[in-house]
Design brief:
This protein is of the alpha+beta class. Helices cover 20% and strands 44% of the residues. The chain has helices at residues 31-34, 37-47, 91-99, 144-150, 241-262, and strands at residues 2-13, 19-28, 56-60, 64-69, 73-78, 81-86, 89-90, 107-110, 115-119, 125-129, 133-134, 138-142, 156-164, 168-172, 175-180, 182-188, 190-197, 204-210, 215-221. Strands 1, 2, 3, 4, 8, 9 and 10 form a seven-stranded mixed β-sheet that branches. Strands 15-14-17-18 form a four-stranded antiparallel β-sheet, with no helix packed on it. It is flat. The model is unreliable at 233-254 (pLDDT under 50).
């Protein structure tokens, strides 16, 4: 079997909710030259469809493809600007589509990109790593003129999360919002519960209070749920039977020798 491996996915949103996506991948083995590019193009378009309208392929070579994703984000007017809510994307479905195609006999596919970056029309971007399902992300692009005219004020703050290790999954009040370390704007003012998780590490929960207009930094350190391979567990202090027994024998021997000298 030959391999198709997704490396990265960069999605840039337009003001109307459409998006341009650059999908970078690696072809290994004979597939790099043996599979017609037209067939790869069709399978990519099927796999990356997020709406009723399939993506339009703009360009493609043997390591990347550029596509237009129609209606990738829903847009709605809000008092301070325009709110964008992106579509979800299940990369496992893309793998299933590929397995059901004419390429299934020659390709083993991993469609889940190691890095995904979504950039909104105001330049704000969100990075997510190693996900099988791209979640929906909501972001508001503030229109200064509109906010001034309406007298609207942002009743939100920003969370800056510093984590060790990296690529820690962050949940805000039970909803996944991205990976840390990162900065998360447009967090509603008030009390929130943060959950930090990563495979192989013990989860951590924190309660924070976000104030209007505040940039709040939260630091979190996750520890291994089990010792990493090769780690040694230090011996616990306690009663060492072997050492104690030897000490007792020495004491008994010394006492018995003294008794013999006294009664000689």
């Amino acid at each position: 079997m030959n391999a198709f491996t997704a490396n990265s996915l960069d999605i840039t949103l337009n003001k109307n909710g459409d998006a341009t996506a650059t999908f970078r991948f690696t072809l290994e083995g004979l597939i790099e030259n043996a599979i017609p590019q037209s067939l790869l193009e069709e399978e990519l378009k099927k796999g990356l469809t997020t709406s009723s309208e399939p993506p339009a392929l703009l360009s493609m070579d043997r390591s990347s493809a550029s596509l237009l994703l129609k209606n990738f984000a829903d847009t709605s007017d809000v008092p301070k600007g325009t709110e964008y809510r992106t579509a979800t994307m299940n990369f496992k479905k893309a793998e299933i589509a590929l397995q059901s195609s004419a390429l299934s006999s020659v390709i083993s596919a991993d469609f889940s990109p190691s890095k995904i970056i979504i950039t909104f029309p105001d330049g704000y971007s969100r990075q997510l790593d190693n996900l099988d399902v791209l979640p929906s992300i909501t972001h508001t692009v503030v229109d200064p003129a509109k906010a001034t005219a309406s007298g609207a004020q942002q009743n939100t703050g920003t969370l800056k999360i510093v984590s060790s290790p990296s690529a820690v999954q962050v949940y805000l009040d039970g909803t996944y919002i991205g990976n840390a370390p990162s900065q998360f704007p447009d967090i509603a003012a008030g009390s929130h519960t943060l959950l930090f998780e990563k495979d192989g590490f013990a989860p951590v929960t924190k309660t924070v209070t976000v104030k209007q207009g505040e940039h709040l930094q939260v630091s979190v350190v996750l520890v291994y749920a089990t010792p990493p391979p090769g780690a040694t567990t230090p011996a616990s202090p306690g009663f060492d039977v072997g050492t104690a027994g030897l000490a007792i024998l020495i004491c008994i021997s010394a006492g018995f020798a003294g008794y013999l000298r006294k009664n000689k």
